[in-house]
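Lab meeting, item 3. Inverse folding demo.
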């Protein structure tokens, strides 16, 4: 296949690049400013020129707090972009794999969230990502939307890398303990997306994917420090003690039964964290 990967310089795009040798395809890794997903004529020309068979969209506006003030840009990237990709894919008879988020939920339930559960985003980021899912479905190309959560990797900026840096700079810090979910190693997500694409699909499908298990941000930080041999006093904070512009879902554990039944491997979060830390602490 000829595969176009958009947003290729981010965590997930770089992770797809890392594993691409295991999937013998022709890849076109693109990002801004080379390829702007809000420019439909550019996308359609690229689809024809490169004879693209599939798109994996890793491009997104993910600055959760900034999105509260930057609604126009968040909408442009998270809604208009996926719409254009879906149109370009449909016109080229190509497949689209689009990545979404746990933020489409309000986090007020305490059971793992299924694909069929009612959505209720509580901020601009979540609302624009949900709208992006909906426009992909409305366009009607062959598409898979995969919601994920708490993404980290050896690439770019993320919670794991921030904890490693702060843990070496400080003797004491606080992390919220009342937000619960599951970390997702971007390499595992990249493999899941490639497996879905390799297996093939038609029509529209929605899946949830994160690593397995349940943990708070506090426990995640504690594990990062313990596995890395970092000695630091870690204080458990309530979300109200760590105010932010946008509210975060308190409970965002995703139910992975559907994607497991599709034959996709879902590793345990701690095992994947160990693999990532081997690279970061090397």
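The presenter then showed the designed sequence:
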């Amino acid at each position: 296949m000829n595969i176009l990967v958009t947003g290729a310089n981010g965590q997930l795009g770089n992770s797809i690049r890392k594993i691409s040798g295991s999937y013998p395809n022709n890849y076109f890794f693109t990002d801004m400013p080379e390829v702007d997903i809000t420019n439909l004529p550019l996308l359609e020309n690229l689809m024809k020129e490169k004879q693209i068979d599939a798109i994996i969209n890793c491009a997104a506006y993910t600055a959760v707090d900034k999105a509260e003030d930057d609604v126009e840009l968040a909408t442009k990237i998270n809604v208009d972009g996926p719409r254009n990709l879906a149109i370009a894919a449909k016109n080229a008879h190509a497949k689209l794999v689009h990545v979404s988020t746990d933020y489409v939920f309000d986090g007020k339930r305490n059971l793992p969230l299924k694909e069929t559960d009612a959505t209720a985003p509580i901020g601009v980021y979540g609302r624009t990502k949900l709208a992006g899912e909906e426009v992909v479905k409305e366009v009607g190309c062959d598409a898979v939307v995969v919601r994920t959560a708490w993404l980290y990797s050896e690439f770019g900026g993320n919670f794991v890398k921030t904890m490693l840096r702060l843990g070496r700079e400080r003797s004491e810090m606080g992390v919220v303990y009342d937000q619960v979910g599951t970390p997702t190693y971007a390499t595992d997500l990249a493999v899941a997306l490639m497996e879905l694409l390799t297996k093939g699909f038609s029509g529209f499908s929605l899946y949830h994917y994160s690593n397995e298990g349940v943990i708070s941000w506090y426990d995640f930080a504690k594990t990062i420090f313990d596995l890395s041999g970092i000695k630091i006093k870690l204080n458990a904070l309530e979300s109200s003690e760590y105010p932010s512009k946008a509210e975060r879902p308190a409970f965002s554990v995703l139910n992975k039964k559907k994607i497991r039944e599709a034959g996709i491997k879902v590793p345990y979060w701690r095992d994947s964290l160990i693999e990532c830390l081997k690279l970061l602490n090397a």
